From TrEMBL:
PANTHER family recorded: PROTEIN SLC31A2, SOLUTE CARRIER FAMILY 31 COPPER TRANSPORTERS
Protein species of origin: Nothobranchius furzeri
Membrane topology of this protein: Multi-pass membrane protein
Family named by the database record: Belongs to the copper transporter (Ctr) (TC 1.A.56) family. SLC31A subfamily.
GO CC annotations, alphabetized: late endosome membrane
Low complexity biased stretches: 69-87
Lineage per the UniProt record: Eukaryota, Metazoa, Chordata, Craniata, Vertebrata
This protein's name: Copper transport protein
Region ranges (Disordered): 69-88
Record's keyword annotation contains Transmembrane helix: yes
Amino acid sequence: MQMTFGWSSSVTLLFDFWNVHSPAGMVLSVFIVLLLTVLFELLKAWRLWLGSGVPLHQPADAVASSLSESSSGLETSPSESSLTPIESRPRTTNKWTLHVLQTVLHMLQVTLGYMLMLCVMSYNSWIFIGVVVGAALGYFISFPLVERMSCYGSLKE
């Protein structure tokens, strides 16, 4: 087995049936690995979003204005407003179901992460580039969601 990065167009990825022997097959494999990496990044953001309780459909500036209106300095003191719970998710959500969903998403994320690691361990430079570009693209796509959560978290405090 090769233990240094190479630029070959033939590689076996993860399973015996994923055996690449042509440039077209390599392009397809890199594209598939790129999409799997984007999915990995989106799973991370989705799990963070589920745990944060930030409404996905509400813009960040609307969240900021509603928070500033609910805790104006004239009506309540800072100590009172910090003790007032801010509910962003309806109480009808079952916490147990949410925890099970987060657990399943975590299992998918870990499995996908290890599969991507094994793809990189094929020491094929094209596959490695596909994983890196997929991670960057996935983060770029999921960044607005992560930014909204961090904005909401800083306003909530």
